[in-house]
Design brief:
The protein is mainly alpha-helical. The chain has 14 helices and two strands; from the N terminus they run ααααααααααααααββ.
Length: 329
Amino acid sequence: MACRSCKRQLALLARQAHAGNAIESSSSPISSASSVSGAAIAQPLPRRVAPTPLAHHQQRRTFRSTPTQAGFGDSLRNLVARTAQPYRVIGATKGIYDICSKAALYEMDPVAVAAGTVPMTPEGEHIGKGNGMWHNNFKLPPTFSTWAQITMLHMYLVFARLRNLDKDTARQWQSQLVDHFFFDAEERMNLNHGISSRGLRSKYLKDLFVQWRGLIAAYDEGVVKNDAVLASAVWRNVYKARDDVDLQDLAAVVSWMRRCLKTLDQIPDTLLYYQAGPALKWPAKNEFALVDKPSPLLADQLLAAANTPVGAETTPVETATTPTGTATS
């Protein structure tokens, strides 16, 4: 009986092979073949011309003048290349996904889960044990929702970089990343939270997929517009629109996203599959030093306000642009 990991790999290979066949069939449809044959029939048949005697030196046949034809060896090499491609895509995306999924890991007590004594959030989520950066520095609870949102946040950064590749290649790599995530999410629901019903897991996975699609649109809008819109998207998705969120945390996450996008953009396409994962390992907590530093314009205004005597008239402080958006004092 195949283990859970083997079943996952077989399902990924089947989906990748199906996608490859679909691409090949779309690139060579029957209509194109029929049009070629119709064009060949429409052309006039060539006349039969008597052969012209050739010189003696032109009748000699050498290895260089022999036309090359695709034989069994070429067909075998092409078959091996097409068969090995899904394995390369799965292996490379698995390495990238592992880095994305380890950012906000948490642990659940299986005994407490089975007994139903796990502490809950006000929304009814299981609270586990987590001691990572996103739990300690950004004050996120160690729950399945936090893990999913932080993992999807990392995946989005890779998705944005993969769009620079050609359409078919980007589609294959993106679909494999999504497959890795949803296979892992379903496994965590079953093993960590005791959700043994496949129908219930499917319902939760559908909701998670809707969140994933909305997350892409929200982050795309923020990246294109400005940091304030991007911070709003992070607040809605990662922090679930909580009222007690520290704006400093939002600014640090936005600054970290901008830095990672810049780093990924500087990686050549040939090295992207090997360096995309390590580019995401920059700690987001390091951005606190940047967001705490006021911009030069805001620093001058704060210095002028500090040197103004008490009771004197002061000019209103204008809006200043900071590395993570606009701020006023």
